[in-house]
Amino acid sequence: MITKLTDLDLNKIYSYADYLSWQLEERLELIKGKIFAMSPSPSRRHQEVSWQLSRVIANYFHKKPCKAFAAPFDVRLIDNDKSAKNHQEIHTVVQPDICVICDLNKLDEQGCLGAPDWIIEILSKGNSKKEMKLKYTLYETAGVKEYWVVYPFESAILQFVLNTNNKYELTNTFTEDEIASSYLFPDLRISLQEIFNET
Fold this sequence. Notes:
By secondary structure, this protein is an alpha+beta fold. About 20% of the residues lie in helices and about 30% in strands. It has one domain (about 40-80, about 95-195): Alpha-Beta Complex (tt1808, chain A), CATH 3.90.1570.10. The radius of gyration is 17 Å and the shape is globular.
């Protein structure tokens, strides 16, 4: 039984089946089979921004057909041209800070199998450029239609949307005195002054 991250070979490629068998206290993600340890405890600023965004988004989706989830919540990603259902064939499991899923057939007891429609990642000071580039490419390849990257210490949000060629385009940069709106859900309007200044 694997109970410590140090028991794992960080150079090995693992599957979702392996991931399910571990009994770890540490949070981690699998990206193309490689282990990425998550920050043991996000900063207070990160958590406050996450809470404020989650509150607004949860209120918006209450009694609507799409469902919103906040971390920790497993999202198993597969390439658009594949339909892996076997745990051994899935090599990517991420825990976005917030995600929205409109195809409820993707939901099961383990979380979400397939690309959410919208993912929001809130950066921590420990996030590396390599990790962020990996996530950007990962979400783009998996077909996540809208992706927000939140910079809590700069009070800014970058909004990426998939274009007709299934490539991300930077469609907006929102700052703390603006109203952010989702591309997919345009009537969802978020006062960033409330999100960033309440923290």
